[in-house]
Amino acid sequence: MRKAVFLTLLFLLSLATPLAAGATTETQFKDGTTSYTHTFNSAGEGSAGLITLPYGSEVTGARFNLVGDASQTTYTNFTTDRHFGGAGSGTWSGSPPSPYTSGSRSNVHVENTDVTLRPQPSTTSGSLTSSAALSSVGTATHNTTGGFVSLGDQGYTGVLSRFSAISAPSTTAWTYAGVNIVVEDEIHQFRYSSSSLYNVPTIQRFNATTGDYIGTASMSTGTCSSTSVRYNIYDATMDSSGKVWLAHYSSYLLSKWTVSETSWTCSSSYSFGYPYYITGVDFDESTSKLWATYYDSSSYPIYNQYLMELNPASPTSINGTWSLGSSSDFNHMGASNNPLSGLDVNHPRVTVNEYNIQGSRHHHYSFTGSLLMKEGYQAMPGGGHYGLAEYDEGKVMWACFHVSYCSGYARQFQMAGDGALYDQRSPSGTSATVQGATTTISSAVSSLKLAGTFAYVPSGTSVSVQVSNDGGSTWQTATPGQTVNFASPGTQLTWRATLSGTAQATPILDG
User: Fold this and answer.
1) Which of 91, 223, 243, 341 lies deepest, with the highest CB count within 10 Å?
2) Tens digit of pLDDT for each residue in 69-108?
3) Per-residue H/E/C for 466-488
4) Does pLDDT of 150 surpass 50?
């Protein structure tokens, strides 16, 4: 009995001895160092080091301090506007320079490689359809119906002028109203069952004067081998022979149709191939030329847009090409890649429609010799629209696409001036200066930007514009797109324009 008690006590003492001896804190790894480094060459798991503990020890607490640092750092200089998504203030997501794989921006403005918060400029403009738009006319003629000023009255409608819309019945289906065109005494409209144009449309017919709904017209591919002639319709025009041409966006196509009041039959299609996304088409009666616009799909992410003069007998034969702009020019509603959809040419004037589902903008250009110069743009009311249709002499027509964004313009064929001189008359003089009404703003400004000057300028004539921020005491000459600076800030904004003509022709200022 005594031996058993002694052995039991000895075992208990032996078990307790290591616990007493191990009451220490280990601060180093197996190799004697107090830190351990592991470099990762790819994603995954790695060793955190080896810690040696005496036999029989018990761990009652542990703490590890982990610090992660990049083993290699690569820098890239952003040296162009394109590295930041292109000049402008629109949103962007895309591919910046290597080694970065993605990038995005919003609410910033990029210009000359500088990135700043997007400005919120104040704008002012005057419509010449109102007599109050001018404070002084001088010897010029102010036509408020056509919305223009000239040296003697002319048969002309300015691009800023508006005309009464034609309303369709309230029961007419209109959820997705696409391209429109006048056929004899009717308006034909391509209507879709969804917001996608990758569907065959229903062709609705309306009385071109009253807007009354008539019915539908059939659509047949006829002798055209490709069924793509029924899809992605972005614009339509009628040539002098009564044939209708359609522009097809992502199909690279123009198609030609024989049309009556009750049927559409495709007779020919013309493929331009990559990278020609056709966005607009128009036949100019004054020059008997066929024109088209296209998006260069190889120019991502800049989204270059172009105007082409085509041979009507062989449309894929391109006689000339002119740049219309890129993503920084077509960024309505904060988007950075709005497509064009709609073209109207009344040489030398050119109008294209920039489409965004929330709203459209019309961009206006003018040929000066062989050069195409941009005049400016204007935002259009009533949601985005597809296509531009010639309605009547001096008028262009369109309809809101998505009824949710029409804001009171649903079931309406809207009308505006097309900037065409349809009745040229002898000038009453060779020079005159007109001055706009003064606009008072709450905060003084020392710089003004002339967003645009809309004018019909025949050869040998000119229109020069000056702006003032102090009611007309100080003047600075400005050209479209130019920002001018004044020595002192002011709150009284106004402008004046000098029209210089000849004995045979007058320039026409319409906005």
Assistant:
1) 341
2) 777 777 777 778 778 878 776 677 777 777 777 788 877 8
3) EEECECCCCCEEECCCCEEEEEE
4) yes
**159-418 belongs to CATH 2.115.10.20:** yes
Q: What are the distances in angstroms from CA 240 to CA 269, 286, 334, 383?
A: 18, 10, 39, 31
The predicted pLDDT at position 7 comes to 44
The 349-356 sheet, strands edge to edge: 340-346, 349-356, 359-368, 371-380
Maximum CA pair distance of the chain?
A: 142
99 preceded by a cis bond (ω within 30 of 0)? yes
Taken as a whole, the chain contains a residue count of: 511
327, containing H or E segment: none
* Bigger pLDDT: 307 vs 42: 307
Which tokens sit at 333? Answer: 């509603």
What was the pLDDT predicted at 14?
A: 47
Predicted TM-score (pTM) of the model is: 0.76
**Measured between alpha carbons, how far is residue 421 from residues 157, 244, 365, 415, 445 in Å?**
7, 24, 15, 17, 37
User: Where in the chain are the domains?
Assistant: 82-117, 126-157+422-511, 159-418
How far is residue 351's CA from residue 346's CA, in Å, rounded to a whole number? Answer: 9
DSSP per-residue string spanning 231-245 = S-EEEEEE-TTS-EE
Mean pLDDT, residues 494-499: 96
Tell me what the pLDDT averaged over the chain comes to: 88
Which residues, in sequence order, are CB contacts of 28 under 8 Å at separation 6+? 34, 51
SS3 content of the chain, % helix, strand, coil (to 5): 10, 45, 50
β-sheet bridge partners, residue 395: 392, 417
Compute the distance between CA of residue 189 and CA of residue 160 in angstroms, rounded to an integer: 24
**Neighbouring residues of 315: CB distance < 8 A, sequence distance ≥ 6:** 254, 270, 290, 292
Distance CA 494, CA 439 (A): 6
Candidates 401, 328, 324, 397; CA nearest to 358 is 401
For residue 8, pLDDT beyond 90: no
Q: Is 131 helix (H, G, I), strand (E, B) or coil?
A: helix
